[in-house]
Each structure stands twice: as C-alpha cells, then as structure tokens.
Amino acid sequence: MAENIESNPFVDVSVFLFFEDISDKQGVEGFTNYMVGQAESLAKSVPEEEYETWDDFAKAVASGESVFSSFESIEQISKYGFVTNICPFSKAIREYIKRIGNFNPVHMEATDYYNHTIQPSAAHSACMMHQTYRKEVAKRIKIGGKPLQYAQIGAKAYTGEIALPPESWKKVLLEKAGISETQGFMEMRENSCLYLLYVEERIPR
Amino acid sequence: MMDIAIYSLVDDMVSKAGTEGVVEYWLRVGESYAERMGKEAYVGWPAFNVAMKEGRTSLTVEGEVNVLTDLAIIDRDGDVIGYVYALKTCPMAPTMRRYISRIGPIPDSDTDVADSYNNRIRDSAVSNYCITHQRFREIAANNITVAKQGLECLQLANKGMSGDVKMVPENLARINVDERHIKSILRSASCVFALIVRGKSAGEEIID
Questions:
Q1: Which residue among A29, A52, B12, B192 has the highest number of C-beta atoms inside a 10 angstrom radius?
Q2: Which chain A residue lies closest to B105 (C-alpha atoms)?
Q3: What three-state secondary structure class fits A117?
Q4: Percentage of chain A with pLDDT > 90?
Q5: Does residue A198 have a pLDDT over 50?
Q6: Is pLDDT above 50 for A116?
Q7: What is the H or E stretch that residue B8 is in?
Q8: Which among B185, B1, B87, B150 has a CA at the least distance from the CA of A42?
Q9: pTM for this predicted structure
Q10: Contacts of B104 in chain A (CB under 8 A)
C-alpha cells in the first residue's frame, strides 16, 4: 500500500471556499460544472491500469494499490459490491464546520442541481467530485481487456442523510451487486458509500 | 481528496479565467476564509504568543508555528511592537507530495499562477497556493488585537518544494531584521512572517 500522506485541513477548507467564490460569480450551475469538470481533469491525469482477472483488480483495490483507491479505503463486500468506510471528504467537512460554522447553503443547492440534472446520487457537494472522479477513473482501468464500469448505489452525508437512486434503478443495481436491500441498508449503516464495480460480459459497441 | 482538487481546478480555471483571474479568485478566498474565522482579542503579547504556541489563534489553523520570542521587534522608544514567527510545514506540502505520488508531476499552471502574482502584486509566492495563504494571514491578523492594538502581518520569507526561496526585502527593512537571520530560520521552517502593531515599524517613522 502506498504511503498515507494526510492533507492539511487548512487547504481542504480553502478549496470549499474557492468553489463558493465561483458560485458567487457563476451561480449554482457554475459551481456544479467546475466541480464536475475538475474531477474529470483530475481523473484523466492518473496513470492507466490493466489487470488480468477480476480477482487481481479486486485485490488491488482493497489493498489500496489501484488508482481507484488512491484517495479512499475500499472494501469488497460481494463480487461486484464495494464500500468505502470513511468518506475521504469527511475530515475536510468536519474542519470546515469547526473553523467556519454552518456549510454555505450553496453546497446543498449544487447537490440538488446535480441530482436533478446529472444523476440522483449525491448526498453532499463533495459527492459530485468524488463520483465523477470514480466514473472517469474507471474508464482508465481494464480488466481482461474490458473497461471497468462504476455505478453509485448509496452515499451518506455528514448529516446522516442517504442519497439513493430511484426504486427502479436501485433494484437493478443491488441485484447486480448481489446484495439484498436489507444488506444494502446494513452496509450504509457502517459505511459512507456503497457502489457497484463490474465489467460488461460483452464489450459495448 | 478535497485538497488534490486544487491542481485540476486551477488548471481548468487558468484555461477559462487566465492566470490573473485565478489570482483574483485566490485572493478573495483568503479574505473570505479569514473574515469567517472571526475576531480575537488578547490582553498582551505573552498571552498572544502562548495562544500561538498552543495553536489557539486563527493564524495557527494552518499548522504548528514556532514563536521566535528571541526576535522581539522594538520601535525607536524601545517598546515591543511585535515578533517573528515561523510556520514549520507549509500546509500545501502534504498535498504536493500526495499529488506527485498518486497522480504525477505538479502541473505547470501552478507556477504560471504564482508567476502572475509575483509579477503583478508582490514577489512572494513559491506556489499558487501561497497567494491565498498569505492573503489569509494578512486579513486574519487585521482581525486580532493585542493589548487593544490591531495587528498587521508582514510576509518575510518562504521556501518552495524544490528549495527556492522568496524574501520580501521591504518588510525585512521595516522590522530591521537581517536577511541572513531569516535564511537560517528557513532551514527548519517553510514560511516566516512577522506580526506587529498595525502601522508601527522598527525604524524612525510610523507608517500610516
């Protein structure tokens, strides 16, 4: 596992403020676009990876050796089901609250905007960055020659609220992950994020 | 992970708002960060310096600070008007190390933004983050009073990841400290600054 270097929360908090400043000038849409755009750029900068088998990939992710787990500690709960125990943004969020106070409402406005215009999966503005990063990084990973696929199932905010997909999606995603809804809720009690990682049986045209 | 976003965000911002636009954003972030930390009052320099040592002031949220009490700044009447402080580790250093280890080399936009600031505003940034950090300190210092007197922060020197050093000669002159002394402090610190009573100087005149 790579060396764990802790960030300085002073920097984390200032990045949140940077996005707030963008929203002052460009509104919630600008905030969201910048957050999504920079996560895409970040993901495009990471090195590509290839794995022979699914087990090789799952092992690399769980041990923190894959670029997919560069910024978070990931656990495999079923063949395609994965969880992140501690949200990698939780420290930054705690420090923001500790130093500055209540979160600027623009973060929730941007989260709602993302959930309505991109996909209904974010519990906090940081989820927009995180989930976009995961989606783009997945494109840089091949397993047995096939690209990795990522789909978010559940995300828990620091307030305890959980963002879940619509019922029809949720059923399909949980089935693909090989876990029941009850198991999914149990996982969300212990973890901050539940998602699906898989490869298509056939390469999409 | 939030911190890592800086580099891709700055890269994106440079392409949309130019280096000058990013400098303006960073300056506003530093101001708003400091403003939202609120005001502080201390009965005297000993109380303030203990708070700095213990990390209780808004100025020490950035990390551990060495309070150089041997470097008291005195005015022409012999009154103590401030002290020199050394930030042990740059708050950006862990992020830089993490970025290099997980992603790759630091993007050129980091230096481009710092150069834009150095050429137009003050030659004191070794990375783009210095812009918001130094501005934060200046505004946070304005929100602190010691013995009912407002403070002012003077950036003195800082050291980049590759060892490059920036000094601010006009501020060194104002507190009458030799550049060589500050360089020796920088051996075990990343940033050196002075906090003095607003408008005072170690020289003859009082600066408005």
A1: B192
A2: A45
A3: helix
A4: 68
A5: yes
A6: yes
A7: helix B5-37
A8: B1
A9: 0.80
A10: 45-47
- CB B3 to CB A38 under 8 A? no
Mean pLDDT of A86-114: 90
Residues in B touching A15 (Cβ below 8 Å): 2-3, 5-6, 9
Closest partner residue to B2 (CB to CB) among A2, A15, A100 is A15
pLDDT in tens, B39-87: 999 999 999 999 999 999 999 988 899 999 888 899 888 889 999 999 9
How far is B65 from B62, CA to CA, in rounded Å? 9
Q: Nearest-5° angle of CA A47, CA A43, CA A161?
A: 135
Tell me what pLDDT residue A1 has: 44
Q: Is the pLDDT of residue A148 over 70?
A: yes
CB-CB under 8 Å, A17 with B32: yes
DSSP string, A89-111: THHHHHHHHHHT-SPPTHHHHHH
Chain B positions touching A137 (Cβ under 8 A) are none
CA of A103: how far to CAs of A77, A160, B25, B34, in Å?
33, 15, 19, 16
Backbone angles phi, psi at B71, to 5 degrees: -110, 55
- Of the candidates B180, B154, B192, B155, which has an alpha carbon nearest to the alpha carbon of residue B65? B192
Average pLDDT, chain A: 90
**Cα separation values, B28 from B21, B115, B159, Å:** 11, 18, 23
Classify residue B106 as left (phi > 0), alpha (psi -120 to 50) or beta.
beta
Q: State which H helix or E strand residue B194 sits in.
A: strand B191-197
Of B4, B36, B91, the CB nearest to A71: B4
Of how many residues is chain B composed? Answer: 208
* Angle between helical axes of B5-37 and A9-45 (0-180°, round to 10): 160
CB neighbours (10 Å) of residue B54? 9
